[in-house]
Amino acid sequence: MPPLALTMGEPAGIGPDLTLAAWLRRRQFGLPPFYCLADPAFLAGRAEALGMDCPIESLSPVAVEACFDRALPVVPLAATVKSTPGQPDPINAAAVIEAIARAVGDVCEGTASAVVTNPISKKTLYEAGFHHPGHTEFLGTLSTAWTGTAVRPVMMLVGPELKVVPVTIHVPLKDVPATLTQELIVATARTVAGELRRRFAIPQPRLAISGLNPHAGEGGALGDEEDTIVRPAVATLNSEGIVARGPMAADTMFHPAARTGYDAALCMYHDQALIAAKTLAFAETVNVTLGLAFVRTSPDHGTAFDIAGTGRGDPSSLAAAVRLAAAIRRNEMAQ
């Protein structure tokens, strides 16, 4: 299997620190070969500033495996990077975007097996004229360009004990009821069920579908979205042969006994899903984008500007993202 392509992420953030730390602890974490798409001089400077003895070799993806044990392999970008930790600058947006596009291109060409992305700063990219809502949507556009088939990416948080999917993602809470539809729940669940089979080797996935309101609406006393939107969506899924239960009360579906009854939980809004996942295993949870033509994983945290360049960043989630990307790709290849 080819090596994994790791993007640099926001250079003023924690991504470069974690990349260096993950390579230095590669044996401890049990990491497969990967390379970073970045400015080699920039990464070397960050390593020196952090006091990390991390040799860096600039090379092409095909030479990664031979070098991985002696140095962090870096595939150079055309764009250069000049950045101070904690001080994002739109001037580096070109390098951030190039790293993502090049990583996807490497997978499409077969020189990389999967994409692992370090966190980006959407605000910084917007200031430079980036027109996509975020990382996921940009990756969806790249997937569509590669295959010619339009995709609707789905976010899944994967931890040792829980897989969760927010049906609505970066939507203000006040707008969630108007955004949520039966069709959106069904389409999301179809993607999740298919990806659990194909990429997670779960032959008959079991889905738990949360309600929107407290106590799943309390029989209509606390809201009717469960009866008008969620319950009909669950019925449609079951009629298609997808094992789904719901609407379930979100405050009682994440305790240990409840989690034994499903393989993934679909929640109606962002925090309803992510609070549970990050509380259970913040350092080991991975963001996986479902529905793409390629495998993409990412740490479950952001740029952490406040600790970038301090050496205090924990590379555990990035390491988990690297391991999971390799495992998913192996499952795909075994189909």
Choose one word for the global shape.
Answer: globular
What proportion of the residues form beta strands (DSSP E)? 15-25%
Order of helices and strands: EHHEHEHEHEHHEEHHEHEHEHEEH
Q: Under the CATH scheme, which class of the largest domain?
A: Alpha Beta
Q: Which architecture of the largest domain does the CATH hierarchy give at level 2?
A: 3-Layer(aba) Sandwich
Quantity of strands, as a count = 12
Task: Let me know the largest β-sheet.
Answer: 12 strands, mixed
What strand line-up does the widest sheet have?
3-4-2-1-5-12-11-6-7-10-8-9
Verbal overview:
The protein has 13 helices and twelve strands. By secondary structure, it is α/β, with parallel strands linked by helices. It has two domains: 1-152 and 292-335, Isopropylmalate Dehydrogenase (3-Layer(aba) Sandwich), CATH 3.40.718; 154-291, Isopropylmalate Dehydrogenase, CATH 3.40.718. Strands 3-4-2-1-5-12-11-6-7-10-8-9 form a twelve-stranded mixed β-sheet, sandwiched between helices. Helix 5 runs parallel beside helix 7 (135-147). The chain is globular and about 60 Å long. The protein starts with a strand and ends with a helix. The mean pLDDT is 94.
